[in-house]
Specification:
Layout (H helix, E strand, L loop, with lengths): L5 E4 L2 E4 L10 H4 L3 E9 L2 E2 L2 H14 L7 H11 L7 E8 L4 E6 L9 E6 L20 H12 L4 E5 L5 E3 L4 E6 L2 E5 L9 H12 L4 E4 L3 H5 L3 E6 L2 E6 L1 E2 L2 E2 L5 H16 L1
Parallel strand pairs: 7-8, 7-15, 11-12
Antiparallel strand pairs: 1-2, 1-6, 3-4, 3-5, 5-6, 8-9, 10-11, 10-13, 13-14, 15-16
Helix pairs in contact: 5-7
Length: 268
C-alpha cells in the first residue's frame, strides 16, 4: 500500500507537500522545539504512549509548556486514518506552541555499516546540563557529524564525548556484544532514551542475554563480537566497521534481536 503523505498542523489536515509554517515560528526561525519519530507497522504506531511520554519529557527539559496530549493524539489518529501499511510518523511541538504531525513512507537509506567516530560536545551527562537527554528539533550538530563521517568515507557517525566516551549515532542507538552479553551506553550520559533502544533491550533480556548499560570507550568496542544499531524506523543493523575496527564474523545476536524486534513491532 502506498503511504498517504499527510500533515496535521494545529488540528488542520493537509497534504504533506502543501503543509507550511510561518517563518516567524520558533521551530523554523530557531529550531526551538521537540519531536518524536514513531514507526508505524501494519498501520499501528509502535509504543505511541511511550513516545508521547518522552515528547512531554523533552518539552519539560527545554522549558516549553506542557504537551497537549489529547490534541496530539487526535491529530495522530486523523493522519493515520485508513493506513494499514508501514510508515514513518513524526510529532513536533515548536517553541511557538505549534503542534505538528507528519506521515510519510519509511525513509530509504543505505544501512550504516561503517561508522566514523565524531566528537559530540553537545551531549552532556544528565544533571550537568538542563536539556540533556531531550529530543529536540535543533539537529544541526547531529547532521554535521553525519556529513563529516560521510566525507571521511563512512556511512554515518558514531558520536563520542570530548572525554572519549562512546555515546550514540546522530539518529540511532548503539549496542555491541561480548561473550553473549549486550552492552549499550547509559542514558545517564545524555544519550536519547530511544524507544527502539528500550524495545531492543527488552528483547535481549527476554532471550536470556545479560544487558549492561554503562560508560564505555572505543577500546571497549575493540573487544566486541558484534556491533549493532537501531532506530524507530530501522531494523537492528549489523555494523561492520567503526573507525579502523572491523567486525567480519557472523551476527547471531543481531539476527535474534532483529527477529524479536520485528515480532514486537507487528504485535503492536
Amino acid at each position: 500500500m502506498t503511504v498517504p503523505r499527510r500533515a496535521c498542523i494545529n488540528g488542520v489536515l493537509s497534504a504533506l507537500e502543501t503543509a507550511a509554517l510561518p517563518l516567524t515560528d520558533e521551530g523554523v526561525a530557531r529550531g526551538y522545539g521537540a519531536f518524536e519519530t514513531i514507526g508505524v507497522w501494519d498501520g499501528r504506531p509502535f509504543r505511541l504512549a511511550d513516545h508521547l511520554d518522552r515528547l512531554a519529557t523533552s518539552l519539560k527539559l527545554i522549558l516549553l509548556p506542557e504537551l497537549d496530549r489529547a490534541g496530539m493524539e487526535d491529530d495522530i489518529e486523523r493522519v493515520l486514518e485508513g493506513v494499514d501499511g508501514d510508515a514513518a510518523l513524526r510529532a513536533y511541538v515548536t517553541g511557538s506552541g505549534t503542534r505538528i504531525v507528519t506521515l510519510d513512507a519509511p525513509p530509504e537509506r543505505v544501512d550504516a555499516t561503517h561508522l566514523v567516530p565524531q566528537p559530540a560536545p553537545w551531549i552532556r551527562p544528565r544533571r550537568s546540563y538542563g536539556p540533556s537527554g531531550a529530543k529536540t528539533m535543533s539537529y544541526m550538530p547531529n547532521m554535521v557529524a553525519t556529513r563529516a563521517a560521510e566525507q571521511a568515507g563512512g556511512d554515518d557517525a558514531l558520536l563520542v564525548s570530548l572525554e572519549g566516551t562512546v555515546l550514540e549515532g546522530p539518529t540511532f542507538a548503539l549496542y555491541w556484544t561480548r561473550g553473549g552479553a549486550v552492552y549499550t551506553p547509559s542514558t545517564e550520559l545524555g544519550v536519547i532514551d530511544s524507544i527502539s533502544r528500550r524495545a531492543v533491550l527488552e528483547v535481549a533480556r527476554a532471550a536470556g542475554h545479560r544487558v549492561v548499560e554503562g560508560t564505555f570507550t572505543l577500546d571497549d568496542l575493540a573487544a566486541a563480537d558484534e556491533v549493532m544499531l537501531s532506530s524507530a524506523v530501522r531494523d537492528v543493523i549489523a555494523v561492520r566497521q567503526v573507525g579502523d575496527l572491523t567486525y567480519d564474523g557472523p551476527t547471531p545476536v543481531r539476527d535474534a534481536l532483529s527477529d524479536g524486534l520485528w515480532r514486537a513491532r507487528r504485535a503492536g
